[in-house]
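#lab-general

N.A. 3:47 PM
ok so I finally got the sequence cleaned up, no stray characters, all 121 residues accounted for. can someone with queue access submit it? mine expired

B.Y. 3:52 PM
send it over

N.A. 3:53 PM
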Amino acid sequence: QLQLVESGGGWVQPGGSLRLDCAASGGTFSDYYMGWFRQAPGKEREFVATINLSGDQYFANSVEGRFSIARDDAKSTLYLRILEAKLEDTAVYYCAAATTYSVFDYHYSYWGQGTQVTVSA
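B.Y. 4:20 PM
back already:
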């Protein structure tokens, strides 16, 4: 069973940058399509970005051009780099693994515990 552990969350100023890591264990990381989701206080969880087995990426409109996603299969690690952070990026960020390329959370079978990102001046 794949286990995912996020790290790297914290506080960042508007316009600043932050990198989130997601370390996988207990399975073959390279077999999974990976994604990042986030949930802000009082809001539903939403899709942020996904990367397929070949490295193709897809982003939510709200973060495209400001976020990047990458994977290192040799290290079984997924990354999300937040650039030009905005106040509305404040949320708990989750990494997740799926067996299909999808923006829908119900396609993802494995989830991390989440890491808090707070954007404030």
